[in-house]
Amino acid sequence: MTPLLLGSLLNPINSTMIATALVAIGQDFHVGAADTAWLISAMYLASAVGQPSLGRLADRIGPRRVFVAGALTVCAAGVLGALAPTFALLIVSRVVLGIGTAAAYPAAMAVLRAESRRTGHPTPRRVLGRLSLAALGSAAVGPTLGGLLAATAGWRAVFAVNVPLALLALLGALLWLPADRKDARPAHEGTASASLDPLGIALFAAALTCAMVFLLHLEAPQWLLLAPAGVLAGALVWWQLRHPAPFIDLRMLARNGALARTYLRHGLTYLVIYCVLYGFSQWLEQVHGASSFQAGLIMLPMSLAAAVCSLMGARTKGIRAPLTVAAACLALGSGVFLLLQGASPLVALLCAGALFGIPQGLSSTGNQAAVYAQAPADGVGAAAGLQRTAQYLGAITASSLIGLLYEQRASDSGLHEIALIGVVLGLLLLTLTLADRSLRPGATGTGTAGTGPGTGTGTGG
Question: Which residues cross the membrane (predicted)?
Fold first, then answer.
């Protein structure tokens, strides 16, 4: 588990570590909040495409090969970001970082499924819980670590720290990950190319890029971008329905409603989480007057609450209960943020962050267990990648909303608008969770992967 845990923390820690360095980066390159939002969205765009793509690759040529290649790419991205002389090159480094870090999580899920097949036993929920805790714990600690690095060594250390982390994951993979099956590699390159559906990947990336550029300029909408985005989305659907091994199996998702609803739940949850995560950290620095390091420390209770709740979620046998509590806490925590002002006492800030850490831990482990139980038996890597894609789509939307509501600088009114969005989406998630019959204990029809690890769910038609 050591290399899997190390690799799986690279993406989430980079997604949040940048939060407390955005202000310093903006000051150095003389850009505002709307521009630094590109550093968030660029990585998520690359990860949204990379996670399912590399998950499919792990299912076909072997997870160990994919994991090793991803770790080497992260090293290159860390060096590029640490030395970047321009803001544009810094964005490029985040794209490369998104691709490299996208390999570890779907590869880890594929390794666990292969080990489950070898032993004839389902992966224990506590093992999945460790994987979730590594991702969630690193994401939660990210703002504090980013603030510490930015305050002591400068924001470039936020990029440079990826080099030793990736090298440790690489060494662990070479030492301990089981060799890929000899039959995992396709017979020839044509087979690999066909099975990976490069045209589907390109159409998805192009449609998502158009949508992202539109979302990042909501203050002055570029309506003309909606036309190519719609055309590309239509072409993607047309191609996916005709390809024998599509990049996104729309027919499978139509048949597997439980898995599709899990993706929707996960994406909406992380839209709220990232809105608060990035919005709160910038508000702390620009309105409350905290330094980047102080902002990271103030967000530490959020990190601790998320880690504790992740462990609790991993020990829970059911799926519905933790997801219900997570949705309720999203709405409640967002309501508390509605009450915050620039002069709010420190204890109020700490309590607000701690309350918001609860849904981070419970939703992460709950939705991960749901995907594992609902995914097709031979496609868990791709299914896990699509789960992260849903998460990144939420994050891209969140960064766009922050750029719109904050414009060039955070404000009390902007934070309150973000919180109001969180209240509405939290209540919507609570309704969706309670209404989903596939999450009930003993329910069938949740997927095709067989009995989930400690979930009480079975196979369905």
Answer: 66-85, 91-112, 133-151, 157-177, 198-217, 223-241, 262-281, 293-313, 325-358, 389-406, 418-435
